[in-house]
């Protein structure tokens, strides 16, 4: 196992200072680096595998800073503070800048990297809540950035073919290559150099792939970076210990966790020991409520919502492919943004948000698609309609176009769309994200909203009001039917619609329990 820094130095790079007597740094924390870095810049999300795990792909890299005081050497320890539970490792590839880079071209950016090595970007999810993505406290603690143990000459490796592996207690838990990066390593260097000068000795932490999870006191984490030519950083080893000091609430916010943080720290709800969430439909729409809504016209529901101050709840501009079919379900949302060629290249291919949405929809749910009213391409076709139907989805609503409209209609699932168009998705749209608040047909739709459609159109009902407006609409339908019968008997509508006091008394008497 390689445990020391190399003796070769890329041209223009500072001489490496290792732990074996070659200009060794005074502080052993930095023995895996040329010296104490002036800046440590970390990427939030950069591997496709991690992005798919999180359910979102960034359009561009975003960053945060870590203090140099967080650096630790291989063989050291990291303390999990008293009163916390979610200390997570993130094996990463670290780039060490050799020559200053300021507004460098992408083609020239890699030439400013002197060395590559292993890093572990530890984070304490208990402290994330108040840092709003800056990660100052959650990732800036002493010992939270082990780096090393050896430097690999960047000139001798192919930046697109580096391998990153992480072990916990000897078990391999992360194994990915830089071929899986959303943003190539050189792009990170070039992008950062647009904003400030990258100076010799600065470190860029390039993100972690899927597999990051929680560790507890006693666990041993090892990270290694290697290349096809056999060069290796050696295994960067860190042991987790239990701290004795706690945080003073009089000075600042204290650790706080919830199930969302637990799921993200562990990697999934299942890994965190949390129950897998049931589809929203099962908790909002009981069989009895669903039956009521299936009997209730959309016009009646719209009227009742208006009485309660909700006018902007209809999805306008969409028509049903099956006018005789009733649509009732809870919303699962999918958002498209206007097509931009570079964004479609990064988000449109592979297992994109559109495909994930149709694979994730549950029984009784409705996929609602934000397409901005743009009908110049399809937002789904027959394959996706078949997938939604096979999963038991209640229907699909899109304020965009439908491709293969005859085949989609033949599938039999209720579909509401703004029109038909033969073009594929990429002509007008980029699939962006799912299960977020969207705008469809001029109204806001949130995941879990109750969606009801018939030949008149589609209405969106806040879940908390669904039972109330269904009961009121059914009662109004019964009253309207009685009024219609009186009009058919020859009575004038004046005083009857709406009911005047005498007619109201007669109606109430006839419908008394």
UniProtKB/TrEMBL annotation:
Asked whether the keyword Manganese is assigned, the reply is no
Molecular-function GO terms, alphabetical: hydrolase activity; metal ion binding
Q: Where is this region: Disordered?
A: 1-37
* Annotated substrate binding sites: 381-384, 403
Q: Do you know which PANTHER family this protein is assigned to?
A: ACYLPYRUVASE, FUMARYLACETOACETATE HYDROLASE FAMILY PROTEIN (AFU_ORTHOLOGUE AFUA_1G02370)-RELATED
Q: What region holds the Fumarylacetoacetase-like C-terminal domain?
A: 40-240
Q: What is this protein called?
A: Fumarylacetoacetate hydrolase family protein
Q: Which UniProt keywords apply?
A: Hydrolase, Magnesium, Metal-binding
> Mind telling me which Gene3D superfamilies this protein's record contains?
Fumarylacetoacetase-like, C-terminal domain (3.90.850.10), Ribonuclease E inhibitor RraA/RraA-like (3.50.30.40)
| Annotated Mg(2+) binding sites | 404
Query: Where in the sequence does UniProt note compositional bias of the Low complexity kind?
Result: 15-26
- Name the cofactor(s) required for activity, per the record: Mg(2+)
Source species of the chain: Microbacterium ulmi
């Amino acid at each position: 196992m390689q445990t020391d820094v190399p003796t070769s130095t890329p041209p223009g790079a500072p001489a490496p200072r290792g732990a074996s007597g070659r200009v060794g740094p005074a502080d052993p924390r930095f023995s895996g680096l040329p010296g104490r870095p002036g800046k440590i810049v970390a990427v939030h999300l950069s591997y496709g595998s991690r992005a798919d795990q999180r359910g979102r792909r960034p359009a561009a890299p975003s960053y945060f800073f870590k203090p140099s005081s967080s650096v630790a050497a291989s063989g050291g320890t990291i303390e999990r503070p008293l009163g916390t539970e979610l200390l997570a490792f993130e094996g990463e590839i670290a780039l060490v800048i050799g020559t200053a880079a300021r507004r460098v071209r992408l083609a020239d950016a890699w030439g400013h990297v002197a060395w590559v090595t292993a890093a572990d970007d530890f984070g304490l999810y208990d402290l994330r809540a108040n840092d709003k993505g800056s990660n100052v406290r959650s990732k800036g603690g002493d010992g939270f950035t082990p780096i090393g143990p050896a430097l690999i000459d960047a000139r001798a490796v192919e930046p697109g073919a580096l391998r990153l592996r992480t072990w916990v207690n000897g078990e391999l838990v992360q194994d990915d290559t830089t071929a899986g990066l959303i943003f190539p390593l050189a792009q990170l260097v070039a992008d950062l150099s647009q904003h400030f000068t990258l100076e010799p000795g600065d470190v860029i932490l390039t993100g972690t792939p899927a597999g990051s999870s929680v560790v507890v006191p006693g666990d041993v984490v090892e990270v290694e970076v290697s290349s096809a030519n056999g060069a290796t950083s050696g295994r960067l080893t860190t042991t987790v210990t239990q701290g004795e000091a706690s945080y003073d609430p009089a000075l600042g916010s204290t650790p706080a966790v919830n199930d969302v943080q637990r799921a993200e720290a562990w990697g999934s709800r299942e890994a965190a020991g949390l129950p897998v969430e049931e589809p929203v439909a099962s908790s909002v729409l009981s069989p009895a409520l669903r039956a009521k809504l299936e009997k209730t016209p959309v016009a009646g529901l719209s009227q009742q919502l208006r009485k309660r101050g909700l006018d902007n709840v209809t999805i306008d501009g969409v028509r049903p492919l099956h006018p005789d079919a009733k649509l009732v379900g809870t919303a699962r949302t999918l958002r498209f943004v206007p097509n931009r060629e570079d964004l479609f290249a990064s988000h449109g291919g592979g297992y994109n948000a559109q495909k994930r949405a149709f694979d994730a929809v549950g029984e009784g749910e409705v996929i609602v698609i934000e397409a901005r009213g743009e009908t110049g391409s399809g937002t789904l076709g027959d394959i996706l309609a078949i997938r939604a139907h096979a999963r038991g989805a209640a229907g699909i609503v899109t304020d965009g176009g439908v491709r293969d409209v005859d085949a989609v209609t033949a599938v039999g699932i209720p579909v509401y769309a703004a029109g038909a168009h033969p073009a594929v998705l990429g002509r007008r749209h980029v699939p962006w994200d799912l299960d977020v608040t969207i705008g469809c047909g001029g109204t806001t739709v949130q995941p879990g909203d109750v969606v009801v459609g018939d030949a008149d159109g589609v209405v969106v009902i806040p879940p908390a009001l669904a039972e109330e407006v269904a009961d009121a609409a059914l009662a109004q339908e019964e009253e309207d039917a009685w009024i219609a019968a009186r009009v058919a008997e020859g009575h004038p509508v004046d005083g009857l619609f709406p009911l005047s006091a005498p007619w109201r008394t007669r109606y109430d008497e006839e419908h008394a329990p």
